[in-house]
Design goal:
heterodimer; A: mainly alpha; 2 domains; B: 202 residues; alpha/beta; two-stranded antiparallel sheet; 6 helices; 30% helix; binds iron/sulfur cluster
């Protein structure tokens, strides 16, 4: 062995090779497009793709996030179940402090549900 | 390169190819069709891509749902006049190099509905068709044959020089005019740069 190798030298080699692997074909494709196969953009080609029909309006529209709210609410019950099951199993052997702590925890989650209910998230519009 | 020397080298396991051949070999074996069926012929197209006929032997089983990723449009079925503008628009939205197989009597001429007021008498009136397949419907073998014909065409295309394939030529169009719905027919009724009616001599 000649010169000391840095223990992380292989990481650098990996990184350079991975970069070359990713960027190399892109550069080749760009060169090929520049010198051999010209790009031919056009109005129809660049327009929004919609099964051959002309698209009406803008494709950048806002989607309703209602389902997302439902998913978040699901988390309330999800977390609750994970903790309630062991809580129920060990219920008789628990100290008063532990039961109080657990009740506070459940209260916090129920609060989240109540808040969503009051806000009207639960009614699908 | 001298043919004799080339075959001599091939015997030794050394293959000499031009860049053009290598490039065409690659793309003729990875033609991705557009997932696009218009009528009964599309069923045969689907059968051709399934296990029994297995179009994937030719590298062409990847039916793309978007024209942006497709190289080949298989016009499989009756092109009604209502549908023709959409077909041309989809063709325009495909990136170069792109090819068209007109599959079945309907796509090449109107087929059994040729006398119909609402049927386009051949998609080659608007877009350049590379391979025509007759038949109603053509069997999957016929589609596979058309495919191999297309592969041979791609293999023979020139990359450089004055007679290079049209997609290498910046002056050749990649978009074709989309017909509009007129009062009685599509306007224009054909693209004269692509298609001229055959002269009938009686
Ligand atoms: S050629 Fe025959 S099978 Fe094909 S779409 Fe026309 S009518 Fe149907």
């Amino acid at each position: 062995m000649g010169a000391e190798k840095h223990p992380y030298l292989f990481l650098l080699v990996f990184f350079v090779m991975a970069l070359g692997f990713a960027v190399g074909p892109l550069i080749l494709a760009a060169l090929w497009a520049k010198f051999v196969s010209p790009q031919k953009p056009g109005n129809v080609k660049n327009s929004t793709y919609e099964c051959g029909l002309e698209s009406k309006g803008d494709a950048w529209v806002a989607f309703k996030s209602e389902y997302y709210l439902y998913a978040i609410l699901f988390l309330v019950f999800d977390v609750e179940t994970i903790f309630l099951l062991p809580f129920a199993v060990a219920f008789t052997g628990l100290s008063v402090g532990a039961i109080l702590a657990m009740l506070i925890f459940v209260l916090l989650l129920v609060e989240g549900l109540a808040w969503a209910w009051v806000k009207g998230v639960l009614t699908w519009k | 390169m001298d043919e004799g020397l080339k075959s001599e080298l091939t015997k030794q396991g050394i293959y000499v190819v031009k860049l053009e051949q290598l490039y065409n070999w690659g793309r003729s074996n990875s033609v991705w069709p557009l997932g696009f069926g218009l009528a009964c012929c599309a069923i045969e197209m689907i059968a051709a891509s399934m296990a029994r006929f297995d179009l994937s032997r030719f590298g062409a089983e990847v039916f793309r749902p978007s024209p942006r990723q497709a190289d080949l449009m298989i016009v499989a079925g009756t092109v009604t006049k209502k549908m023709a503008p959409q077909v041309v628009r989809l063709y325009n939205q495909m990136p170069e190099p792109k090819y068209v197989i007109a599959m079945g009597a309907c796509a090449i001429s109107g087929g059994p509905f040729k006398q119909g007021y609402n049927v386009l008498k051949g998609i080659d009136r608007y877009i350049p068709v590379d391979v025509h397949i007759p038949g109603c419907p053509p069997r999957p073998e016929a589609l596979i044959h058309a495919f191999m014909t297309l592969q041979r065409k791609i293999d023979a295309q020139k990359v450089f020089g004055p007679d290079r394939a049209h997609h290498f030529d910046a002056d050749k169009p990649s978009e074709f005019p989309i017909p509009l719905y007129g009062e009685h027919d599509l306007v224009p009724a054909k693209n004269p740069n692509v298609w001229e009616p055959a002269v009938v001599v009686r």
